[in-house]
Amino acid sequence: MTTYHSYEPSHGHRLSHDPVNAIVAPRPIGWISTVSGSGVRNLAPYSFFNLFNYTPPIVGFASIGYKDTTTNSIESGEFVWNLATDDLGEKMNATSAAVPAGEDEFDVAGLTPVAADLVAPPRVGESPVSFECRVTQSFQLRTAAGDLVDTWMVLGEVVKIHIAIELLREDQTFDTAGARPLLRAGGQGDYFLPSDDHHRFMKRPKPATR
After folding, report:
1. What pTM was computed for the model?
2. Do 186 and 48 meet the contact criterion of CB atoms below 8 Å apart?
3. Distance of alpha carbon 205 from its chain centroid, rounded?
4. Angle at the Cα of 168 from the Cα atoms of 133 and 57, rounded to 5 degrees
5. 10: DSSP letter
6. In a 10 Å sphere around its CB, with 0-12 CB exposed, 13-18 middle and 19+ buried, how is residue 195 labelled?
7. Which of 103, 111, 137, 201 is the most exposed place for a label (fewest CB within 10 A)?
8. Buried b / exposed e across 55-74, counting CB within 10 Å, b at 16+?
């Protein structure tokens, strides 16, 4: 029989590092650009990010603490998600630094802001994929007991998508592994990359016929 390390999170994990974000992994990175009410650009990565709906496409990120990205996206109703790739890893990481209020992370990381078409926040010019988004919902998370958690969820409908042509295969499908997206795992700084060597294809089963 399998032996398990079992624990209740509210009582501590009794390990060297909380394993939850290593178990629910790897996760896409929410590299989110926003603009403040005074016009200051902001760019920050979030490891709690994902796609939550297909049609219309809705993405969302969770911010632990009410940070500039949260404030800007909720107040303006807009944000842009940018794909963080392996070759942009160091620059992405640079945008995670705590910088003085009003400082532009595009400048800090040496990235190029490119005007979006339908929203005010800029795209990351070096990123091969960007989603222009309009906020649909935002709310503070709660525990099972109903207590508020210092984490805010922001969801946004993707209203325009930009994809670098070289990432579209001959059959017009997106080359996921070829884009080399950085995926966040556990620990203090663990990341992974998808690989065609580990590509597994499985079609959804068809309903049984009688």
Report:
1. 0.93
2. no
3. 30
4. 25
5. G
6. exposed
7. 201
8. eeebbbbbbeeeebbbbbbb
Distance CA 68, CA 117 (A): 22
CA distance 200 to 194: 11
> What's the mean pLDDT in 5-9?
94
Closest CA to 116 of 50, 162, 73, 56: 162
Q: Above 90 in pLDDT, residue 66?
A: yes
Please give the Cα distance from 200 to 169 (Å, whole number): 18
Instruction: Tell me the torsion sign for CA atoms 107, 110, 114, 120.
Output: negative
- What are the beta bridge partners of residue 160? 132
Residue with tokens 């079609």: 203
Q: Where are the alpha helices (DSSP H) in the chain?
A: 20-23, 68-76, 89-94, 105-109, 176-179
d(CA 170, CA 168): 7
Return d(Cα 210, Cα 198) in angstroms, integer.
36
Peptide bond into 205 cis (omega under 30): no
Q: Output the CA angle 55-58-61, nearest 5 degrees.
A: 160
For residue 135 the two structure tokens come to 């906020």
